[in-house]
Design a protein that fits this description.
With 302 residues, this protein is mainly beta. The chain is 11% helix and 54% strand.
């Protein structure tokens, strides 16, 4: 990081308030589609209906503009807001670069482009997508890499778990949650949990969720390592399946569990190499792997 004489730093912090206004213009297009369901086109349409999009930055302590480092920093209960999004953290840092067509060295007059935003210290993001659905995320750090169009939540906040909530459905992880907007893929690492409003829960070491980029709806969830699925039936009984891997297919509402599968409900226990749980039909089928590993079951009769 380059150092500058103290008088210049004082001036740069003062002009940071001007920089905050410039951020309003430079960052307008950045937030389109950060969460599932919000597309750039939808954001542009909103702008056409309500006027120019604006971004506001506030902080208790300081707004600093580091021209040589091409960086803006807001410190102390920093809050960054747009009509669709609110991002909060102890510190919010935005990196920018001069656009290729810009030759003016004055950052106030150049056409700058935000490349990255990092919110650190009890970071919290709330986003309203094009369908009017709210997504809420919590982590120690939230990083948006605009170049790659990837949002990453990492580090345990005070709540003790990284969490994203949408329509009452919850996804959690210990290490990180990463969302790649272009592919619609969400990757959870470390003690992952996906909890649905109907009571279903899916756990594992790693969860890769494929969503439809247009509406954010889940297409598939793939669990790797220590897969565990809990499913309540119509009578309130909980059916549990464990295995090495699991795949949930939303279209067929089916969970396929493989590798050392154990299926339990109350005192009934079934074991096999593969289980296909047809959630909508309320049926489960266990099978062997064909290598002399037989399917077995233990049932308790009244």
């Amino acid at each position: 990081m380059k150092t500058t004489p103290l008088p210049y730093r004082r001036q740069s912090r003062h002009t940071g308030w001007i920089a905050a206004s410039l951020m309003t213009l430079m960052m307008t297009s950045m937030w389109g589609g950060i969460w599932p369901g919000m597309t750039t086109a939808a954001l542009a349409q909103t702008g056409a209906q309500t006027g120019a999009q604006t971004l506001r930055v506030e902080a208790d302590q300081q707004l600093e503009w580091r021209r040589d480092d091409q960086q803006y920093i807001a410190r102390g209960n920093a809050v960054l807001t747009t009509p669709e999004m609110t991002l909060k953290a102890d510190t919010i840092t935005a990196d920018y670069t001069n656009s290729p067509e810009s030759t003016n060295s004055d950052a106030q007059n150049s056409k700058n482009r935000i490349t990255s935003i990092i919110a650190t210290g009890e970071a919290d993001i709330t986003y309203l997508d094009a369908q009017g659905l709210e997504t809420h995320g919590q982590a120690k750090t939230i990083h948006y890499d605009r170049q790659a169009d990837i949002l990453t939540l990492s580090g345990l906040p005070a709540a003790g778990v990284i969490r994203v909530t949408r329509e009452g459905n919850i996804t959690e992880a210990r290490d990180s949650i990463t969302y790649h907007r272009a592919t619609g893929i969400i990757t959870n690492i470390g003690n992952t949990a996906t909890k649905f409003t109907d009571g279903r829960q899916i756990f594992g070491d790693k969860a890769v969720t494929t969503t439809n980029p247009d509406d954010g709806k889940i297409v598939q969830i793939t669990i790797t390592g220590n897969a565990r699925i809990l499913h309540p039936d119509a009578n309130g009984n909980i059916q549990e399946a464990t295995g090495d891997h699991a795949v949930y297919d939303a279209a067929s509402d089916t969970v396929t569990v493989t590798g050392h599968v154990i299926l339990t409900e109350a005192e009934n226990i079934l074991k096999g190499s593969k289980a296909v749980m047809k959630i909508g039909e309320g049926t489960s089928v266990l099978s062997s792997d064909g290598d002399n590993n037989r399917v077995s079951g233990q049932f308790v009769l009244e």
